[in-house]
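User: Quick sanity check before I run a bigger batch. Here is a single chain. Can you write out its predicted 3D structure?
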Amino acid sequence: MTAPLPRGATGTVAAVCVVAALHGDSGSVGTTAIDKRPVSGPVAVGPLGLYADVQADRAHHGGPDQAVYLIDETEREHWSGELDRELPAGTLGENLSVRGLAIDDLEIGAVLEVGTAVLEVTAPRTPCMTFQRWMGTEDFRARYHQRGRTGVYVRVTTPGNVEAGDALRVVSTPGHGVTVAACYAGTRDRELAERLAVWSEESGAGLHREITARIERLTGSRG
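Assistant: Done. Predicted structure follows.
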């Protein structure tokens, strides 16, 4: 398991992306807001995400625990190579494309300063069929799952503004050692679930609903 990123680690916001257009989708909702594209200048970020952004499927996307979605820019570059086509910022549905920080190695509960906003890491992304259809290949979800670096959801603890070029800094880490990547890979790992449950109980920190459900399933206790 890769060591978690420490307090003080820094990166840069390479791009800030919001929805450009809604598109029809064959899933149950019938439309998707996955088409994110970069915008210039400061963008306000609040408890439900970036100003002018939207989620079409609010049962599975969005909400306070998934207010903003961050991708490591090197992951988008990886998939550009795998798919043999350029993937501009926003293609993976991300709100913030981050340069110089391996964000999948952040611990669940790590706190970040980005521009004038403060964000708390909540969960990995779970790739869905809408994502696969958007990427245009029949096996993309399986390949994305196998790689296991799916990006980071955060909640907004202090609203503010963020723009391309802003520094991103890890201001605190919880110390339990469960990174976003490890959390995603350890879906059936009871020991990881117990670590997160203990941390949540001792710190009073809330857990993402999917992680809470996993803890209940694996340990019989609530996170």
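The two ends are 22 Å apart (CA to CA).

User: Great, the batch can go ahead then.
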